[in-house]
Design a protein that fits this description.
- There is one protein chain.
- By secondary structure, the protein is of the alpha+beta class.
- It has one domain.
- Helix content is about 15%, strand content about 15%.
- The protein has one helix and three strands.
- A three-stranded antiparallel β-sheet has the order 1-2-3, with no helix packed on it.
- Strand 2 and strand 3 form a beta hairpin.
Length: about 70
Amino acid sequence: MELRLGVPAATLATAQRVVTLADDIRVPYDALVVATGVRARRMPGCPEGVHVLRTLSDAVALKERLRPGRPL
């Protein structure tokens, strides 16, 4: 696990499982949590199907899209 403070993420390539940082360093990942802080923001290149989960309304909307037996 690697923690990089003070270097913003620039792009997210989910198919390749790589985050490119603002300093052009590419960081591969097995699992990724995007914690944007006080307000939810989408990263450039963020694909459809990625959901914001901050409120009960967000959770209800996500629940409606989930299918039984599918992993999160």
